[in-house]
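Researcher: Go.
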Amino acid sequence: MRIQLVTMPWHPIDLPSLQVGLLHRLVRQVRPDDEVHELHGSLRWAEFLLERSGGALRPGHCVTVGSDSIFHGLGDWVFSGVLYDDPDWGVTRLRDYAHRHGIHVDTATAMRAHAAEFVAECATQVLAREPDVVGFTTTFMQNVPSLALARELKRRSPRLTVVFGGSNCDGPMGHALHRNHRFVDHVVRGEGEYAFPALLRHLDEGTPPVDVPGLCWWDGEVSRANPETRRTVAPADIPSPDYDQWQAALDASPVAEYVHPKLVVEGARGCWWGEKHHCTFCGLNGSSMAFRAKPGPVLWSEVERLVRRHRILDVVTVDNIIDMAYFRDFLPRAADSGWDLRLHYEVKSNLTPAQLRLLGRAGAVHIQPGVESLGSRVLDLMAKGVTGARNIRTLRECENHSLTCSWNLLYGFPGETADDYAPVLAQLPALVHLQPPSGAHRIQLERFSPHFTDPGLGFRERRPAEMYRHVYDLPERELADLVYLFDTPDAGIGGEVEEALRKAVEEWIAGYPQSSLVMEEDEGDEEDTDGVVIRDRRYGLPQRTHRFAGWQAAALRRLEDGRTEPALHRLLADDGHTVPARALSEWLAHALSVGLLFQDGRTYVALPTRDLPAGKHERLPDPAPPAPAVAG
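Model: Structure:
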């Protein structure tokens, strides 16, 4: 059997497709006589645009229209005219949408002019291999580009078997995609490692695939959807990906000079936190929340093989949450490898300083810790299982260990009030030396999230997100099953509080590159060596130097872990410091007033970092002469 695996725009062009790599290796293992070829459509699309536009449309524009516009559907819209065989389809709808939402669509419009020719060229390239089966993987905005090519392939070669799979096909979405597109023969819902080989066996034998769990297939003109299974793929059955054809395509590509390639690996699936307390807004993992992880030595052997084979040191893990066992059996191996790895990892925000230090030693340069908020009550509404003070500590330790930290500040949760945000807003200027969120964003209702599955949590009214109206020519009842994002009436804060939050985050983003708040041990003289000195160079605040000694220096050190006032008082006593309760209260108030502490409820956490992250020294301006030292 000849099998063609396809990943269409808008897969990131600097990454191989993990899904294609896994299925390629899987087919080679279980069906060694089959031919397997790949079409890396995102890479070819970037090449195509560069060629046809005379250099006006560059790979960076693919990011703008693809991942950066995911909540406006621009990537899908670029190909919708090809899917519906009408160059003008959806144009007026998008213009109206763009006007109301204040977005720019000129780049997407310029790309759309090339979409039909691109799809035709892809179809010619695929059919030149004379495949028996073409398998598409689709996630986020890959649906319409994939459907457009699938339609053209079936038009030219009706005998061809077209199979869809991927995150966009999970649960009811997969059945809706199948029943509304007759040219799609099969849809694999859920994980593919067991289902795809089983389907290929049925195709070999010419038998109906009635026993393949979760599969959608045509019984005459009736779309059948086999019951989904609760069985998950065991880690031992998840192959190591094959990226050889991706590497060959990238090496031969004229856009290679625009790309800093990275490898993609998978250590775990599911979410161990979500199994216990599913974050209320999160729809990731779909129907497969069960957490499973490859043993650390196995994952390291995969990383080692891929790095050696492809000579690429940037490694992106797609795990939704790190397996805590990897701090024992994977990260130490990476740290001791001697390689200048650059790992990208998604973690929980309650890691200890020692764990963050190990991530840094192992080569992690970019983490996503799921901070989401800095207020404990809002975090409770999310079921995050962490406090605002703990999140502040994580942001501080990321600075200490030169870890780039990506996070979003989310709001709009049912039950939140302005009072939940008032203390956070008052303290945001003091955080300007810590890595800011990408922005303040109102949550959107995601399929599979507790907010979606349980209307009692506050989002009773919902309808498919408005952007899908310029993407699909389908009635709302079908969109309700097909799509991932939904519009609902706003919950939580709004008005002046929402605007203040957005503005404060914008100022944080603007001020961070030129801000620092660093605490060092004060060498002092021989009789006084237990003090600390704090150099405050935060944007928007007075530049000054603070010095503390004795119990005040000890208090700052203790507060690096976050403490309540009574707990701090007890710890200071244990350290041999006799501190009157009133003196401690007054000192805490003073340290808070000058922005050296963050207060989350009854907990105080120290804000100064112990060092500047690598590279930030060069970005900081020459400091103005410090104000006179301020003692407590």
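Model: The chain is about 40% helix and 15% strand.
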